[in-house]
From TrEMBL:
Gene3D superfamilies: Jann2411-like domain (1.10.3300.10). This is Zinc finger CGNR domain-containing protein. Residues 134-175 form the Zinc finger CGNR domain. InterPro entries: ABATE (IPR010852), ABATE_dom_sf (IPR023286), Znf_CGNR (IPR021005). It comes from the Bacteria.
């Protein structure tokens, strides 16, 4: 099976997972940290992000987490609400060597809205592809990390090999002490 939506959907999902995880883990708490995250992920329009941009972005995190965890039908309703509240105006653009792709807001829109609308556009593709359950949480009880499961059969359970091996070791010890 191939993923039947544009690769920027995967990229956006991994970006918003990094945003929500970074917020939860206390790594994102300032305008500088938002600018750094956006630079790392090449998310445009954030190089001048201010404290109020950061506060507005953090305010969108619970919405994005709710979309991440919700069943498909509920995601559809949440996506529509984000589009409505941010006054999204999808339009096709071609720039900086990138072929035609969709922008949800005009250039110069607040970065917080740009992030929320980009997330909503990526969720739109997942809803249409009936693939929202690729948006997962780590199977390690002590780790609530969000990750996007790109695996062929949607079988990935852990955010990282660290969490996977920690869980395997714990399960091994539990079996050993039971024996
Ligand atoms: Zn673009
Ligand atoms: Zn984990």
């Amino acid at each position: 099976m191939t993923l039947h939506y544009p690769h920027e959907v995967v990229r956006t999902m991994e970006f918003v997972a990094a945003l929500c995880n970074g917020r939860r883990e206390g790594e994102l708490d300032s305008a500088a940290s938002l600018r750094r995250l956006c630079a790392e992920w090449a998310f445009p329009g954030a190089s001048g992000a201010s404290r109020s941009d950061a506060a507005a972005t953090w305010a969108h995190v619970p919405t994005i987490e709710a979309m991440w965890d919700a069943p498909r039908d509920a995601v559809a309703g949440m996506v529509n609400r984000v589009f409505r509240e941010a006054d999204a105006r999808p339009h096709l653009v071609r720039h900086d060597g990138l072929d035609w792709h969709l922008h949800g807001l005009q250039a110069g829109a607040p970065v917080a809205d740009a992030i929320a609308v980009d997330a909503a556009m990526a969720f739109t593709d997942l809803v249409r592809a009936d693939d929202t359950d690729r948006c997962k949480r780590c199977g390690d009880d002590r780790c609530a990390s969000m990750f996007f499961d790109r695996s062929r059969n949607r079988s990935r359970r852990f955010c990282s090999t660290t969490c996977q091996s920690r869980t395997n070791v714990a399960a091994f010890r539990a079996r050993a002490s039971a024996a």
